[in-house]
Design brief:
about 575 residues; alpha/beta; Alpha-Beta Plaits; two-stranded antiparallel ribbon; binds iron/sulfur cluster
Length: about 575
């Protein structure tokens, strides 16, 4: 069966009334768009020996009777046809100690006691406090199967160990949902234009889109996988600030292009291609530092697209030297609005202490989306000292901006998007409960592609997984179909988890969750998030008319509920 169907829609993806507004150049540069199926297919790990929490050792006592292979429901033991000896066990499929309680525990059932189970000592070195090993293993499992990991894996994946941020927040779930809802009754879509300015009311099927990662910082396969998954889920991906690859053109209608301080590869024509243009003022992981691509990552292909010289380091300075006031910002937004008459504008800022003033200023200047980028995100290329010490924690910034926009009467005219360390569906839901309409995800997508959080992203040949590299030898480690499917699967698993949360609150739409900080508790603030920020639940919640189309729920075991959360 063909995995992806390709359709040429003969440029009719742009409404006729909007087409009339477009400059001639825009229409000339339009290319047929490609559709990507949202179907869920298993996408197994691409390395032979995937990281595993447990390891099974088989001794010479094994008589190859095949009983362990017969017993194990997870296909850990493999006897390839034509072979006499068992292959190395597929340890990453083993549920380990949880299996002891079952009657198919191969270690006990082996007639020769030839098997031994140990915890993998390498797991202790895998991940970090923000992305602990269980979260990595669970995300890989979601990207493989398209569903939350089965309960018997006992992954504690919904919070990390950072000791702050979303890791210290919990939902206060009611004893039982106020109304019983089925999955099909839950709408997870959001609209990205709340202004009545004649520009399209773009709706995405899930309350998230992919973050900007430039060609150069990541490979073309990584960028394209993200873009194709965005098409499948009717959401967006972002080019980052490294120019617009020609190979991205068939996905234009699901792309955001970034205009950042370096203006690498930014041309009128690239701005005219897309439905959303993002002004990037700062990155939450390194505010005040700008962007930096080391010379060794500036390969001929990267230099060409960025209109730069091969091999030299490329900097995007921190400020736009043409923007020192809201009026200057407005001038920039007007410039883009004029060049692309259908585009929505997003303004990406980090989270200084006066971020609420920045947000309301940007709203006044005419932006459609305020994108707050907090400090918990960033790839390994962002310096740790910056990631951990500069920006205001995103959970404070979201609540602060949401409240200020409500007080100013502007909240229902602008879309608030949060990013920076959104790792799971629970993080997504928490950000929304604090006041965001939706989120931007970045690192999670890289994890789905097999990232191991080694923090070598900045080096030209540093990425062992061929994700954050442009080195021709490393890039070929990943295939586009595989990368696309992994991100499609991860999105589906996140949506299942998000729907579960909404169901437990009896909410029919993710929009009902916006600003409901009363549903959260903070383990540091008298168990009350509201006392942390004095955030009031606000927002007029409009009735939901239509369901967001969702992918078929794959057959999977029951998702695990967080041990630490209230029932
Ligand atoms: S059950 Fe024991 S003896 Fe039989 S194949 Fe498995 S490990 Fe070998
Ligand atoms: S595996 Fe690659 S993308 Fe992930 S942290 Fe390491 S270098 Fe960066």
């Amino acid at each position: 069966m063909e995995r992806f169907s390709v359709q040429e829609n003969k440029l009719n993806h742009i409404p006729e009334d909007i087409k009339g507004l477009l400059p001639e150049n825009t229409v000339k540069t339009l290319v047929p768009q490609v559709e990507v199926n949202r179907e869920i297919h298993p996408a197994k790990p691409r390395y032979r020996n995937e990281f595993a929490k447990y390891i099974i050792f088989r001794s010479d006592a094994c008589i190859h009777c095949g009983k362990c292979a017969e017993l194990c429901p997870h296909q850990v033991h493999v006897l390839k046809s034509g072979y006499k000896l068992f292959a190395t066990p597929k340890n990453y499929l083993c549920t380990g100690k949880a299996c002891q309680k079952t009657d198919h525990f191969c270690i006990d059932q082996c007639p020769e006691q030839a098997l031994r189970l140990v915890e993998n000592p390498m797991i202790k070195a895998l991940g970090d406090n923000r992305w602990p090993s269980d979260m990595l293993l669970a995300t890989w499992k979601m990207a493989e199967t398209g569903a939350p990991p089965a309960e018997e894996y006992e992954f504690d994946y919904q919070t990390g160990n950072s000791g702050g941020g979303f890791d210290r927040m919990r939902f206060k779930f009611p004893e039982k949902p106020p109304v019983e809802l089925s999955d099909d009754e839950i709408d997870t879509s959001i609209v990205l234009n709340r202004r009545d300015d004649g520009r399209p009311k773009i709706k995405i099927d899930v309350p998230w889109y992919g973050g900007g990662m430039s060609f150069g910082s990541v490979s073309n396969v990584t960028q394209l996988s993200k873009a194709r998954a965005a098409v499948a889920w009717n959401t967006f991906s972002c080019t980052g600030e490294g120019g617009y690859m020609e190979r991205m053109r068939p996905y234009d209608e699901h792309m955001i292009t970034q205009v950042a301080t370096g203006l690498f590869g930014v041309r009128e024509e690239t701005i005219q291609r897309v439905p959303i243009v993002e002004f990037k003022y700062a990155q939450g992981a390194k505010p005040g530092l700008g962007g930096h691509l080391l010379g060794e990552k500036n390969t001929p292909a990267v230099a060409k697209i960025r209109e730069a010289v091969v091999g030299i380091s490329l900097f995007s300075p921190f400020p736009f030297h043409s923007v020192y006031s809201i009026e200057d910002h407005m001038k920039h937004l007007d410039w883009i609005k004029h060049i692309n008459r259908r585009a929505l504008l997003s303004t990406k800022v980090s989270t200084p202490t006066d971020v609420d003033m920045v947000a309301v200023g940007s709203y006044s200047a005419g932006t459609h989306i305020i994108h707050l980028d907090g400090g918990y995100g960033g790839t390994g290329a962002a310096p740790d000292i910056a990631k951990k010490n500069i920006a205001m924690p995103i959970e404070y910034a979201i609540a602060k901006v949401h409240k200020f926009l409500v007080d100013e009467g502007a909240r229902d005219k602008v879309v608030l998007i949060a990013s920076g360390g959104i790792r799971t569906a629970h993080d997504i839901a928490k950000a929304i409960a604090l006041g965001a309409d939706g989120v931007v995800v970045g690192t999670g997508e890289l994890i789905a592609l097999g990232c191991v959080r080694c923090s070598r992203c900045s080096a030209g040949r540093g990425c062992p997984r061929g994700i954050a590299t442009t080195d021709p030898g490393l890039v070929t480690q990943m295939e586009l179909d595989w990368g696309t499917q992994r991100i499609i699967n991860l999105y589906n698993a996140w949506r299942i988890d998000l729907v579960e949360i909404l169901k437990r609150f009896g909410m029919r739409s993710v929009r009902e969750l916006v600003g409901r900080s009363d549903l959260l508790m903070h383990l540091d603030f008298n168990n009350d998030v509201q006392s942390m920020n004095e955030v009031k639940p606000a927002m007029d919640v409009k009735p939901v008319k239509k369901q967001a189309p969702a992918a078929a729920k794959p057959k999977s075991k029951k998702p695990k509920k967080a041990k630490s959360e209230q029932k």
